[in-house]
Design brief:
By secondary structure, the protein is an alpha/beta fold. It folds into two domains: 161 residues, Rossmann fold; 171 residues, Glycogen Phosphorylase B (Rossmann fold). The chain has 14 helices and 13 strands. The protein has a seven-stranded parallel beta sheet, sandwiched between helices. A six-stranded parallel beta sheet has the order 10-9-8-11-12-13, sandwiched between helices. It starts with a strand and ends with a helix. The mean pLDDT is 94.
């Protein structure tokens, strides 16, 4: 049996986006009879560790130096390695390739020193960029290569979503597995400031965020439920009239689900993806978190429109559904398995 190792970032500050898209690829290659092992510090985010464990995938502790990576990959008897990291020392990549391993690296615009036999940039309009590639590398770019997990694919509607009128819209908000930048409470305050009725469910990955959400002053006919990280993410999204999230890897999952999506740019490296996603008309832009923290008045007109205009919600949902077909992981797995 072929064996593939996945070396990815995860942590309270880094979040779980790298793990989640790697799990999507892992589900696909396992379906084709390939064994997987993750090399990462999944234990630092228990929910992420649970997601890997639930799939029966072995986890080895993360290593740092080039020599340590080569030693671990040789000991695991791997046929190929998938990298998904913003934090790796760039010297790791050529060392692993020089040791004879086939490699695939998932990147987001800036390679950050990554080099591999196959580079995958699954971001919107990435195919329009023309970066200089490392020697003997090929690049797969754009939304045709978005990797979507089974949980999401199982809930993807067969037809484009349509407008769904409702007197009291349901809102679901989440900001990654850790909400590392504390976006949840600020979004809840902006929702409350609209003065409009809603029933919102907001994910709070820790007690401090939960306390901040509980302190948000609501107006009549506004209801806020606070939950922890959930394994029922897709079901929550499908049940909501509006989903609000960070502009990161989860954006493509929301579009695939046909969700009416409002995006918040929570960190600088999301700016390009945020602007491109909003520019397609498939997601509504709610601005940059740093500005939302200082003054939420600019986002209130957009939120009011999303809460009161079912036709606009339906238009956004249908446009997103058409952008992401859910088959990207098949295309990436084809490229990976061709290497071995």
């Amino acid at each position: 049996m072929k064996r593939v190792g996945v070396r990815c970032d995860v942590g309270p500050a880094r979040g779980i986006g790298h793990v989640m898209r790697c799990l999507a690829l892992a589900e696909e290659v396992r379906r084709r009879g390939v064994e997987l092992v993750f090399v990462c510090d999944a234990h630092t985010v228990p929910w992420a560790a649970d997601q890997v464990a639930a799939r029966g995938i072995d986890v080895q502790p993360a290593v740092r130096t080039p020599a340590e990576h080569v030693e671990v990959f040789e000991r695991l008897d791997l046929d190929a390695v998938v990298f998904d990291s913003y934090d790796l020392d760039p010297s790791v990549y050529p060392a692993v390739r020089a040791a004879g391993f086939s490699t695939l690296a998932i990147v987001d615009g800036d390679f950050r020193g990554a080099e591999a036999d196959v580079l995958v940039d699954q971001n919107l309009a990435a195919e329009l960029d023309e970066p200089m590639l490392p020697q003997d590398s090929v690049r797969l770019a754009g939304l045709p290569y978005v990797m979507i997990r089974d949980e999401i694919l199982d809930h993807r509607p067969a037809e484009p979503p349509t407008a769904r009128p409702t007197a009291v819209p349901k809102v679901f908000a989440f900001f990654g597995g850790t909400d590392a930048f504390g976006a949840g409470p600020y979004v809840a305050r902006a929702l409350a400031a609209t003065g409009l009725p809603f029933e919102a469910t907001v994910v709070a990955p820790g007690p401090e965020l939960a306390a901040q959400l509980a302190a948000v002053e609501l107006q009549p006919h506004q209801h806020l439920q606070i939950i922890g990280p959930t394994n029922q993410l897709a079901a929550e999204v499908r049940g909501a009239d509006l989903t609000i999230s960070a502009s990161g890897t989860s954006t493509w999952e929301l579009l695939c689900l046909g969700a009416t999506t409002g995006l918040v740019c929570v960190v600088d490296n999301q700016v390009m993806g945020y602007e491109r996603a909003v520019g397609t008309g498939a997601a509504a832009g709610l601005g940059v978190l740093s500005e939302l923290k200082s003054n939420d008045s600019s986002v209130i007109p957009t939120l009011k429109r999303l809460l009161t205009d079912p036709a606009e919600r339906g238009r956004l949902a249908s446009a997103g559904w058409a952008l992401v077909d859910g088959r990207g992981r098949e295309r990436v797995a084809d490229a990976l398995l061709q290497l071995i």
